[in-house]
# Entry
Amino acid sequence: MMRRYFLIFTLACSLSLTGMQDAAAEPKAGVSLPPSALLQYTIRADIKGMSLDGTSRVEWSNGIQSYTLSSETRTALTGVLLSEKSEGMLDEAGIAPQTFSRKRFRKETVQTHFDHKAGTIGFSDNPALPLLKGGEQDRLSVLWQLLAMARAQPARFIAGSAWTFRVIGNRDGEEWVFDVKETQKLRTVLGEVDTLHIMRVPTEKSGPTIDIWLAPSLDWFPVRLRAAEDNGDTIEQSLSKLEKK
# Structure
């Protein structure tokens, strides 16, 4: 139960998008990073029949040649449930993570290192050193890679298009597939906004179905996110505050 619980709560920043082409081949013009910002979300979760409310805080810092991204999720029941941090550089493919750390409730901090010089990925709790193929994202940076691509190339994010990506977790990596759905108008605490709906389709390795609603008028930041497990566990996050820096 708790494993699924934490997996779903990583949703706020757990998505990966590069194109079906090799991401490393994308030109710099193919990405446009959003401005530094603080985003806050309200959370509603249903886990094993138990309803939970909470908040999520995401801080994004665009340093032009480098970035820092951190996320903290809280619930009234657990306090800090999950904290994550991703740091790295920007290259011709967009975001290139160098370090990623995750601290879950009652668990030790785990780290992932992207050694771009050696071309390997290292894990704090796994001796394996898989090779970097180019364009990999960690589970926190991937959403901003998506934002950067959507901001620069909105015409490519059309209904029916599919995108495949390599996402690196705490012990290994896997391919995620996303489908672009229809545009929708959503009511939020920030007002009514037009959004683009994108869905992650689980592969043979299973995992949650993930729905994301991006708002072009708000620099393509997500105004709503939802994850659903096969067993019926769900969590939905709604943007409650956006501060651009």
Summary: The chain has one domain: 2-244. Residues 142-152 form the longest helix (11 residues). Residues 27 and 92 are 5 Å apart (CA to CA). Residues 2-244 form a domain with the YmcC-like fold fold (CATH 2.40.360).
